[in-house]
Amino acid sequence: MTISIWRYSHLALAVSSFVFILLASITGIILAFQPISEQIQPFKSADFETITVAETISTLKQTYPEIIDVQIDANSFVLASVITHEGDSKTGYINPKNAQFIGSKLEVSPFFQWVTNFHRSLFLKSTGRFFVGLCSFLLFLIAVTGSILILKRQRSFKKFFSKIINENFNQYWHIVLGRLSLIPIIIITITGVYLSLEKFDFLPTSNTTHNIDFDAISVTPELNIEDFPVFKNTQLSEVRAIEFPFSDDVEDYYTLALTNQELVINQFTGEILSEIKYPLVAFYSELSLNLHTGKGSILWSVILALATANILFFIYSGFAMTVKRRKSKLKNKYKKEVCEFVILVGSENGSTLPFANVLHEQLLEAGKKSYITELNSYTTFNKAEHLIILTATYGQGDPPTNATKFLELLKTTQQPRTLQYSVVGFGSYAYADFCKFALDVDKAMQTKFKQFLPVFTINDKSVDAFKQWTNSWTEKIHVPVQIAEEKLVAKPKLTNSLTVVHKTDVADNPDQTFILTLKAKQAKRFVSGDLLAVYPANDYRERLYSIGKVNGHIQLSVKYYDNGLGSNFLNGFSLGSTFKARIINNAAFHFPKKAPHVVMIANGTGIAPFLGMLNANTKLKTVHLYFGLRTSESYKLYKSQIEGYLKTQKLARLELALSRDTNNNYVQNLLLRDSEFMAATLKNKGVLMLCGSLAMQNDVLKTLELICEKHQLEGLHIYKKNGQIQLDCY
Ligand SMILES: Cc1cc2nc3c(=O)[nH]c(=O)nc-3n(C[C@H](O)[C@H](O)[C@H](O)COP(=O)(O)O)c2cc1C
């Protein structure tokens, strides 16, 4: 499969440096805990930020006869080396306010030392250091190419951080966590490279040799140490180290190492004898070390640990995505010159390929000569009679990477024979331009070839919808093609345990419909409009039901069919029974919180998600419900719930369309009757939600089209695109 240059680079970099990055990440996570373990020690004085050098030196002088030096580390702990009145030499952390010792010097544990050495050089000395530095740079490039991929996906800088649609666990979290840890990872990698360059002496070194004019040093005017202006005006927090004079000789002096410079100070007069500004390299070295290791900040250490743990997840999810993409290969038995059927595929992430492959294999099995290839490989097909195009859509109706050249190739390639074509679009209602590229391809094909079947669109890789299309296609072409469902649906891994807490009796309802209420064992977030996937035979066969969340439970409305796999399975349960199923997020069909008002249109069991949404309408947003059923007897199953919502004003208005009762009505008739209201709803940014049968969806959409024309509104596709018309029909 063709992949974009950025994805290729991202992958190639990851593959080439994977082992080093893996080892560096694991050790990096461990090492992030070292600064944390230091910082939680109680050695930082409460008034550290306000105390001056003058105060600390004077208390030290009053307490100890001799002081060798004072050092302040990244944790703001003050380490002093002194000689006590008893003549003992003592080193440890002091309270800078009263010069009392509060703890002994922290030594890095042998374990952390071992891990640090491994992290820096993998025990391979200079060679190891070189590779670790190089991999740090490669990781930087991986982060950059990853950001470019996100930018291309999101289409602009402005949308870099906007919502991502969760279509696939690995892909979703790879992007979400990638964006969150991008800045820490860039910092880790740049500082890692910097530290390596420093170790290989690639950076200029700083020179701190003072030039002191010893002939000009004077002992007068002598000042008390606490009156030295330089000590009075310097906060301890600006200091790295203070070296005390070795003796009372005037040629011995204080050396004050600050964050940006080093000063030499006359021990009698407080005069600054020499000052050397540190070069920028020294500043960057310290900054790099602190940023890379987390020294001095618990918060930054935690961020580093999390970002590094994310790298491990990126390794896993990145490879899992690649394996998934590469799993489906396009294989041909016959040469393109001899094939009657040509299947052209447009796919970015590989999920359209199994659909195309299944069709291809079935045609071969039926004894037909079929050829399969990518849309970008479109060329002349000498014997072809049927072109079948299966393509996904990306971005704002753009082609997937392996289909970018197709529309151009279509213009320039002349087929030797007259062809018939069919286009199947794979897309998602969650995006504004649903299957737009497939629709564009269909339009372009119309100018050259004869349309065999109208363009068909498939939401969210629906196997059922694909089977519907193949049925119509094979019926028309008279080739027996049976879609092997097991090749398209993988056995689920992530299932939730559910318990039946309420169930109505099928026999009580004239349409053999029942309500099933389930309690999820594990706390799992879901909302009305999400889907419940059940696996009746514990195999690849999946049946989907729209969820209504009612009082925290999953409420399904199920129509029983004698031979229905899903409905028989669910109807077989009694109170207290448990089974496993999977909850699928269906973000494209959640209650629109921002809409000024909502019109729900349902028939039959399509009411299920709406019952849950109404239950959650505690803010009493104005909701109108158009509900189609057969008879007033059918309505009894839902009556008490719906009337409860009407009473509490969670539902403002109910319009029942009973097709087999006296009024012989369908929801679309009522919509036409209320066309003024429907038009005003669309005009005023209200939202229409449809759930139920595909036949009802088609009739309702036709009616809405008429209403839009009559009231001179925008085309229906505009309202679908901006989310004012939301569909969940089956
Ligand atoms: C970044 C991104 C953008 C998408 N944009 C659209 C879109 O504009 N219209 C649409 O109908 N589907 C869109 N989709 C959904 C895909 O077309 C759909 O999931 C398809 O089944 C993916 O097929 P593939 O795995 O073969 O590439 C988008 C998916 C992603 C990940």
UniProtKB/TrEMBL annotation:
Alphabetized UniProt keyword annotations: Flavoprotein, Membrane, Transmembrane, Transmembrane helix
This protein's name: NADPH--hemoprotein reductase
Residue span, Flavodoxin-like domain: 341-478
Molecular function per GO: flavin adenine dinucleotide binding; FMN binding; oxidoreductase activity
One family name in Pfam for this protein: NAD_binding_1
Transmembrane segments: 12-33, 130-151, 172-197, 298-323
Leader sequence segment: none
Top-level enzyme category: oxidoreductase
Organism field: Bizionia echini
EC number: 1.6.2.4
GO CC, alphabetical: cytosol
